[in-house]
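User: Here's a structure from my thesis project, written as structure tokens. My advisor, Dr. K., wants to see whether a designed sequence matches the one we expressed. Can you design one independently, without my sequence as a hint?
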């Protein structure tokens, strides 16, 4: 049976216009109303504060303020915001972080169109949602002692780590997160200590090995 999203008001955030178009056509075809489209985290936060949507559907990896940073900033201003994170990442690290930060749901982009509709419906009804393909992986990650050193990072350090691993400079990250360069430098120092890495190349390699960025 087709999922009915009639009357649900949405904001879409993804840096790829073709992805946003695909989401819009699918979601509006199920009865939802897309109030705004955004290509970065800053725009997503501003649109949600202005439009007060029922659900923000947001990608993790975007230029500027990424999905995790935007999620943290939005919930600081609007604790009741319902956010469905969608991502190409298929590891358990990003979903665990997103849910811990306050996302109501997490969906892999490889999911079927019907699964996207179900996810939006669940989050729109103020229920939690986790991609079925990730459920066991995420549950085990939260129960077991993890092998990944990334668990040692705080949520802020994780957001900074992802940006630096994608090749952004300290100055870029400072601007994106509205922090001073010295504060980002302090985060970078702690990240290097915790992960036992020496430079940006090793940060990127670690992110690739954990499935956080594509090779």
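Assistant: Designed independently from the structure alone:
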């Amino acid at each position: 049976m087709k999922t009915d999203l009639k009357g649900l008001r949405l904001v879409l955030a993804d840096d790829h216009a073709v992805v946003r178009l695909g989401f819009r056509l699918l979601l509006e075809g199920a009865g939802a109303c897309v109030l705004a489209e955004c290509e970065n985290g800053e725009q997503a936060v501003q649109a949600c504060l202005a439009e007060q949507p029922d659900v923000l559907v947001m990608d993790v990896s975007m230029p500027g303020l990424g999905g995790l940073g935007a999620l943290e900033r939005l919930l600081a201003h609007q604790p009741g915001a319902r956010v469905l994170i969608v991502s190409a990442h298929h590891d358990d690290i990003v979903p665990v972080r997103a849910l811990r930060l306050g996302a109501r749901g997490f969906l892999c982009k490889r999911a079927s169109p019907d699964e996207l509709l179900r996810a939006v419906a669940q989050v729109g009804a103020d229920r939690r949602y986790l991609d079925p393909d990730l459920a066991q992986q995420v549950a085990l990650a939260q129960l077991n002692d993890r092998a990944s050193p990334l668990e040692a990072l705080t949520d802020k350090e994780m957001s900074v780590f992802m940006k630096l691993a994608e090749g952004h400079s300290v100055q870029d990250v400072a601007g994106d997160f509205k922090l001073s360069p010295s504060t980002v430098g302090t985060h970078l120092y702690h990240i290097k200590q915790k992960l036992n890495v020496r430079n940006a190349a090793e940060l990127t390699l670690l992110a690739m090995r954990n499935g956080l960025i594509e090779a």
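When you compare it with your expressed construct, this may help: The mean pLDDT is 87.
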